[in-house]
Amino acid sequence: MFENVNDRRVWSSDLSNSFSVSDFGLQVTxxxxxxxxxxxxxxxxxxxxxxxxxxxxVWFLLxxxxxxxxxxxxxxxxxxxxxxxxxxKEETETVEHLFFCCKSSSNLWYHCYKCWDLSFCLPKDPxxxxxxxxxxxxxxxxxxxxxxxxxxxxxxxxxxxxxxxxQDFKPNWEFEKKRLFWRLGTWTKGxxxxxxxxxxxxxxxxxxxxxxxxxRAPRRGRLC
Length: 224
Ligand SMILES: [Zn+2]
What we know:
Blueprint: H1 21-35, H2 38-43, H3 52-63, H4 69-74, H5 95-101, H6 103-115, H7 126-134, H8 140-167, H9 173-191, H10 206-210
Helix pairs in contact: 3-8, 5-6, 6-8, 8-9
This protein binds zinc ion.
Zinc ion binds next to loops.
């Protein structure tokens, strides 16, 4: 930008342009507070980077309207023999347990953290988890990719759970981790037709994919 001055990285939220962990914490808190406003809460599930069915599912998740066995049992549904989690058969199948606390499903979230080089403790309720998820300091395409991954994981957990409940499905959890990235790539192609990466190779090429700059934010009505 200036002649005779070397380029250097700056932390733009601080007047001195120098990074500090405490300022980083303040910025994340501010984003989470902004996203916690009543207006933002209503918009929270509706990110135009995944199919509408996935947005609707996360909206149901945030509203506590997912028909887990605990909910059906509580509402007096017939033909529900018990309220045990279908994935682990050990705990009560609440939304919090099924999506975030169950040892099987939580591994999918932690796999994403690992792939994005993050070290977080997974929050135990949908709203806090989504707020902390979108509060990470990623930028541009990487931010949209990371945000979409929340929907992918939530969709995948519910899909596995239903297939186990109704189709006698036995998940291979290592394969399901790979399926997360295949699904992410497929959904990304839905709003970004020129996305050049093959869904099957997304996980292996993730570092390159995260830095891709060949797209702009999606406009409404472009999702498949
Ligand atoms: Zn479980």
